[in-house]
Amino acid sequence: MKTWTEMASIQPLVSKMLTNGFKQNRVSHAYLFYGPKGTGKRAMGSLLTKTLFCKKKTDIEPCQDCKDCHRIDSGNHPDVHWISPDGQTIKKEQILHLQKEFTYTGMESNQKVYIIDQADRMTTNASNRLLKFLEEPNKETTAILLTENSQSILQTIRSRCQMMAFKPLNTVALQNQLMDKGLTEANARLMVALTNNLSDAMELDKDEWFANARKIVVQLIEVLQSKPEESLLFIHNSWMHHFKDREQIQQGLDLLLLWFKDLIYHATGNEALIVFMYEQERMEKSALIWSRQHITNVLQSIMDAKKKIGQNVNPALVMEQLTLQIQR
Hints:
GO terms for molecular function: 3'-5' exonuclease activity; DNA-directed DNA polymerase activity. The chain is α/β, with parallel strands linked by helices. The protein folds into two domains: 4-165, Rossmann fold; 207-327, Up-down Bundle (Zinc Finger, Delta Prime, domain 3), CATH 1.20.272.10. It is 58% helix and 8% strand. It is built from 16 helices and five strands. It has helices spanning 4-10, 12-23, 41-53, 67-74, 92-101, 124-134, 155-158, 171-180, 185-194, 198-206, 208-226, 231-242, 246-267, 280-289, 292-310, 315-327; strands at residues 30-34, 80-83, 112-116, 141-147, 162-165. A five-stranded parallel β-sheet has the order 2-3-4-1-5, sandwiched between helices. The longest helix is centred in the C-terminal third of the chain and has 22 residues, at 246-267.
């Protein structure tokens, strides 16, 4: 999404608040963009930044073609700093480096912007350093924090930011868009369950690794149903071989979560919500093996496993524990 008009079509309230701020010359020194993945937070941060720097904008609409706009797109603007997790977390040293950078005069103007992606993954020390930075705002410095989980950010940081809630996109409209682009209904439904972003969904649909990930999740269900005594062996020989890093394991757990959600939909007669549309036979078999209460417990166990993966717990151990919990 490159223009304010485009952004207004997917996030009307946030777009209106930001554009009104520009028109009234009331740009905040710090924003916190929060909401589900794929709702346009990063694109909005980039657009906001372009509007601040573009010298050829029309009203508040950046030109998208000048040197400033191109460098912001490529991540090479000297007065725009992006911070992302270094490994699993954003560390104190990254915030200290940012502060040091901001003691210098702007390379091309006095305007400076820093954007912190996945801000909820700041360590406690990093959060405290950022808080001190926010407590002494420079009127020509703008902070943009992006997160899917605003509650994990210090209340003292949140109180110093203008909060911007990004709403989930219209899933029906997105599913129809994907089907118009050639995806089957089953694939479109799965992609919409995993992301609210059209381009991400298209890339995921073409990803061979992801296609194999889906197969492995279904194979795990089959092993758990038919040969539970071999499930731990399957985890080590197949699951861990395919899901090699923490991000991939999170994707595998997301797929597993969708499967067990489907079992709840199947049990309650909400067939229209089922994502794994062509696995009805396995679902009926699952319903005979696992009670609704057990399925609910498994959903919580998968959420706990996702949390542990995010906390750097040994992935193999997490998957072993989860498999045993599903078997109970």
